[in-house]
Amino acid sequence: MPVSRDGKTRGPASASPPAPGSGLDRRALAAATVTVVAWASAFVAIRDAGRYFDPGALALGRLLAGSLVLGAVLLFRGEGWPPRAAWPGIAGAGVLWFGVYMVALNWGERRVDAGTAAMIINIGPVVIAVLGGWLLHEGFPRRLLAGLAVSFAGAAVVAVSESGGGGGAPLLGVGMCLLAAVSYAIAVVGQKPALRHASALQVTTFGCLIGTLATLPFAARLMSQTTSAPVSATLMVIYLGVVPTALAFTTWAYALNRTTAGKMGVTTYIVPVLVVLMSWAFLGETPRPLAYLGGVLCLAGVAISRGRRQPVTVEPAPTEPASTISGGGPQGRRTHSPLGRQE
């Protein structure tokens, strides 16, 4: 899809995001679908590759692969450096999302299963909606607070379920997943303004490069573990860089530029379901029974926060002949409204 320098499509019909309440347009919905499926697979791939790579080394390997692919595409398309106005959002996303999020999630998945991690991460849309309402003026309904409380209660239930048999390690895993969720939520809100000045490809590519620089301290560990890891694990790291990073982060930015941050957060509802199914199919893992309850609470909180009140419709008063409205003698109803008979 051709993208201009300001990140918007050339066609006049899709040059701007849909009006509030109209949902995602078709192109944005397709991009969001690719993102959701790719990110769901990432939870399973991280759990698998994490047996051979430390959290920091895994993040760096993933970002290196993603940066190479994104850089090649950027050069092929002839897109240069983003405008100066886009750099604060790009830098924030690079450090928080490509850096902190990936290391924290990798760390968390060493201690909790992929499905549980996905359910905890999914409180992110609530945080996105809160920050989007506050910083981006996308609206701040009261039910956001209720949704936030329910989601964090769900995270607490997950933490209790994970504390049943592993000492402090599972609790640390839950905490790292929470850190990852908050980091990605802040990055999304910061990324939205950057897309007003730069294309989705520019924002994703340079964000990935910044994340790579932030994780360079893990380079020695990555090199030593790559030599000892099986080829399948190394290929899994490359997959993480190409599909859930290079492809999915670009399709996310593309869709984000055509809707609100809050609406894009809603599209991640399905991720935990896909992760549980993929984790069961490929890894033979399923969350603890109590973790399912916590996950349901997390998703319920997101649903509550993003729900809308039903609009109150007021039926217009029937139009009546002037003689009827002004009739009835001196006690008859009179109107002085400029709307005349409609009042």
Descriptive overview:
- There is one protein chain.
- The protein is mainly α.
- It folds into two domains: 25-311, no CATH class; 313-343, no CATH class.
- 66% of the residues lie in helices and 0% in strands.
- It is globular, with a radius of gyration of 24 Å.
- The model is unreliable at 1-23, 311-315 and 320-343 (pLDDT under 50).
Short descriptors:
343 residues, mainly alpha, 2 domains, 14 helices, 66% helix, globular, disordered N terminus, disordered C terminus
Task: Compile the SSE list and pairings.
Elements: H1 26-49, H2 55-77, H3 87-108, H4 114-121, H5 124-135, H6 143-162, H7 169-194, H8 200-214, H9 219-228, H10 231-256, H11 261-266, H12 271-282, H13 289-306, H14 322-326
Helix pairs in contact: 1-4, 1-10, 1-12, 2-3, 2-8, 2-9, 2-10, 3-7, 3-8, 4-7, 4-12, 5-6, 5-7, 6-7, 6-13, 8-10
Could you provide a short overview of the structure?
This protein has helices spanning 26-49, 55-77, 87-108, 114-121, 124-135, 143-162, 169-194, 200-214, 219-228, 231-256, 261-266, 271-282, 289-306, 322-326. It is an all-alpha fold and 343 residues long.
The number of distinct β-strands equals 0
Calculate the mean pLDDT score and round it.
78
Inertia-based shape: globular
Low-confidence stretches: 1-23, 311-315, 320-343
State the helical fraction: 55-70%
Strand content: under 5%
Number of H- or I-type helical stretches: 14
Number of domains: 2
Structural class: mainly alpha
Question: Biggest sheet: strands, sense, closure?
Answer: none
